[in-house]
Amino acid sequence: MSKRLTVRGERTQHTGPARPRQLRAYLPFLLVAVSAAAPLAAQQEQQRVVRGLSFKGNHAIDDYTLSSAIATTNSSAFATSPFLRWIGLGEKRSFNELEFRRDVVRVLLLYRQSGYMNAVVDTVVRHVSNDVYITFRITEGAPVRLAALNVLSLDSIFNVAALKRDLPLRVGAPFNRMLLQASADTIVSRMRNRGYPYADVLRSYDVRVDSLKAEATLEAVPGPRMRIGEVRIIGAGNVDTGTVRRMLSVHAGDLFRQDRLYLTQRDLYGLGMFRTVNVALADTAPRPGDSTVAVLVGVSEAPRHGIRVGAGYGTLDCFRIQAGWTAYGFLGGARALELTGRLAKLGVGVPTDAGLRGNVCRSLEGDDTSDTLNYNLGLTLRQPAFLSPRHTASLGVFAERRSEFKAYTRQAVGLNAAVTFNARRNIPATLGYGFSVGRTTADPAVYCAVFTVCDSTDRARLASSHPFGAVTISAVRDRTNSVLDPSAGSVVTAALLHASRLVGSDTLYEFNRGELEVARYYPVGRRGALAWRVRAGTIVPARHITLASQSVRFVPPDQRFYGGGPNSVRGYARNELGPRVYVSDSITVQGTDTTFFDIRASPTGGNSIFVVNTELRFPTPLFPDRMRVALFVDAGQVWERGEQTGVSGLRVTPGAGVRFATPLGPVRLDAAYNGYPAEPGPLYFQNNRDKSLTLIAHPLIQPGLASGFWRRVVVQFAVGQAF
């Protein structure tokens, strides 16, 4: 006998016999009946704790979706794990028999909406003392598949065939009514972005249970095509309405587009001047005889000034503090004036050295660049609407002292100016100019080994203050689903820097620097992700400079590439990948034997870098919402192109780590295996009396591989994903 279910709008017809096992059209009524028939004794009996909740036989719908659809929830991991229950921690969730009976119906309804009309749900409840272990046994059966999808009344607006390929519901797939709704929403959104502000879509479908086929129809009701008429602004008190209008992406006479309303709302909220922003149509229906639509922009003002203060600890900063003050609407308009300050190396750097290198900040032990307090003081004026609501501009002055771990120290004052085009769009591009006067210092052996500048007078010239001017161009294409913890999409970043006399730089600082980074993320299950990244960069000095009757190509240490660390090749500590030099200032001579003591290694950086990272992230059985495991392989190298440094070939370091979800992003702990000896390099003896350098070992020193497996494991701790 033919069985047929037809649904149009809100009306439902059912013909053919109904089998109670399948609970077809009577499931809503059954849900009410189960609720009414639940015995009062179930509420009065002793509370039982849910110690286990599982699903068996489900393939079309995963465990996470099923557990989210029911009221019965499992107790926390500490309360369910047999190894952790004895601690007494964790949330214990009670078993409610009334809700459990409803859950059976909820699961059946979910399967029906997903196209599985013949699904059967059985349950197994095991009682152990006051504990309950629940199993949902599901027989999904064959799904009802979509045989035809009709899209009507859109031939004059869209290419219907191309549109159907973009809809979530596809012919041949299980007939999922939630995807039918999503397809209707997709069509409505596209029509409203084509000038039809009151567009709607009528849905209807015909299900044949006996043949397991369905036919769905989406009929568009476009309504009139309209343009923007009046744009009304309400709620702006201290903020000039002209300021708000300059940020609008909707203007009188424009063809209506719903996405422009969303852009306007995002742009206004991004100013920081409003608590709330709402941009919507003023009327719920078109006015008779009017071909324009009114837009209402409602804002609620925020305080005109903001203060933020923070403090923290970092393995490379020791203790640090920072503060900021922002004045919104500075000098009228939407400008913002921002004053920021930051202090780092607290507890290890002069004048705040408290001897913490030997305990709390042990990672900075032996780092000469951390001997003085680091600071940054900046004053920045930002113009959010520069020539267009899409563009922004900024102008700032700064004074800083910053150091890079075991590499260099930079102290300077200067200014920065930048214009960002399409700042809040898909591909923002920034054109910037920076000018500073300052000096960059590094280990004297770095100048001697990389640039063959071993004379103390010439080294002093390179390390003295010089003007540095540079023009930068950068662009970012970010298509990820999350800023802090992406699991799908991609990011492409490109940056170019040019420094020369033409842009105000000293003749010592003339070079071109380029860098490209590409990252891609693929979702694996509901919480996992497979990610990879490729980073490459190069520096080309623009001219030779003459020092001590020799010609060298100089690139300041703060502009060179360095590798290794929690966001690079994780098998190496920060800046330990690539060329290096070895320096000793203590020597003992016994006959023909010479022994050097207190040998320290200093990274020289390079003019070329290449890094590849691959990482698989997946949830742990324990705390799957809060903790994930990562397996990764990093490969890369830093080179000094054109020089014989003894460094060649990529370094490959595999490893594993854990990530803990926090409001600030994932906190991660990674451990990587490094099966390579330390990079080779020349050894210099430094005379501390006259600061002279003497090359001791040539050819290069070849350090040996660390003995034992655990000595080759490098542990990295950081906040945020590696890429």
Topology (SSEs and partners):
Layout: E1 4-8, E2 11-15, H1 27-37, H2 41-44, E3 48-56, H3 63-69, H4 77-80, E4 94-95, H5 97-113, E5 120-128, E6 131-139, E7 145-152, H6 160-166, H7 177-192, E8 200-208, E9 213-221, E10 227-234, H8 241-246, H9 258-269, E11 274-281, E12 292-301, E13 305-314, E14 318-328, E15 336-346, E16 374-383, E17 392-404, E18 408-421, E19 429-442, H10 444-451, H11 456-463, E20 466-478, E21 489-499, E22 511-524, E23 528-541, E24 545-547, E25 550-552, E26 580-584, E27 586-590, E28 593-597, E29 600-603, E30 608-619, E31 627-639, E32 651-660, E33 667-673, E34 681-686, E35 693-701, E36 713-719
Parallel strand pairs: 3-6, 7-9, 10-12, 26-34
Antiparallel strand pairs: 1-2, 1-8, 3-4, 5-6, 8-9, 11-12, 13-14, 14-15, 15-16, 16-17, 17-18, 18-19, 19-20, 20-21, 21-22, 22-23, 23-30, 24-25, 26-29, 27-28, 30-31, 31-32, 32-33, 33-36, 34-35
Helix pairs in contact: 1-5
Would you kindly provide a written description of the structure presented here, covering whatever features stand out?
The two termini are 60 Å apart. Residues 1-45 have low confidence and may be disordered. The chain is built from eleven helices and 36 strands. A hairpin with a 4-residue loop joins strand 8 (200-208) and strand 9 (213-221). The chain has a 16-stranded antiparallel beta sheet. A five-stranded mixed beta sheet has the order 2-1-8-9-7, with helices on one face. With 723 residues, the chain is mostly beta strands. It is globular and about 100 Å long. Helix content is 14%, strand content 44%. It has four domains: 4-139, Roll (Ubiquitin-like (UB roll)); 145-221, Roll (Ubiquitin-like (UB roll)), CATH 3.10.20.310; 227-301, Ubiquitin-like (UB roll), CATH 3.10.20.310; 385-719, Porin, CATH 2.40.160.50.
